[in-house]
Amino acid sequence: MTRIITVLCAAAIAVLASCSAAAPGDPKVVDGITVYLGVVPTELIRGYSLGHEETTMHGGVPSGAGFHHVVVFFVDTRPHHSENMQVRATVRPLGLAPEVKVLQPMRVGNTDTYGNYFSMPGGNPFGIAVELRRPGERNWHRVDFEYRHPR
């Protein structure tokens, strides 16, 4: 099960690295936290059997076309601070209203990973803002990514 999530995350980063947006697969750094972003089409997740955790996480895989699983994981220079982070993302299609969601924790091997499903139809570029807050801190830290679906 965690192997499948690991493969999905790796595939998402590989897809991002090949996109035409300005280096969307590159990690971003904020306050000593290196943030990695992955975007996986839900069609890949729907192919799993109903018994897999991937089919029920975040309330289940949305039906319909154009949905993607937005996944982030990060490396924090402060030991043990990547655990129990509060993470949210805003996905903004070009010219359309943004969608804001809490990214829910998912354990992938030894990595704290967070994700949720977003509607990302069409071929327009998307701005993805990831905000995170360490446990016990007041301030949110934000990084911005640009994403385009691979062609």
Question: In brief, what are we looking at here?
Answer:
By secondary structure, the chain is mainly β. It is built from two helices and nine strands; from the N terminus they run αββαβββββββ.
Characteristics:
151 residues; 4-stranded antiparallel beta sheet; 14% helix; globular; disordered N terminus
Q: What is the averaged pLDDT score?
A: 76
- Shape from CA axes? globular
Q: Structural class of the helix and strand makeup? A: mainly beta
- The order of strands across the largest sheet is 1-2-3-7-6
Order of helices and strands: HEEHEEEEEEE
The third-level CATH topology is Immunoglobulin-like
Detailed description of the structure:
It is built from two helices and nine strands. The protein is mainly β and 151 residues long. The protein has one domain (2-147): Immunoglobulin-like. The strands form two sheets. It has a five-stranded antiparallel sheet with strand order 1-2-3-7-6. A four-stranded antiparallel sheet has the order 5-4-8-9, with no helix packed on it. A hairpin with a 5-residue loop joins strand 4 and strand 5. The chain is globular and about 40 Å long. It starts with a helix and ends with a strand.
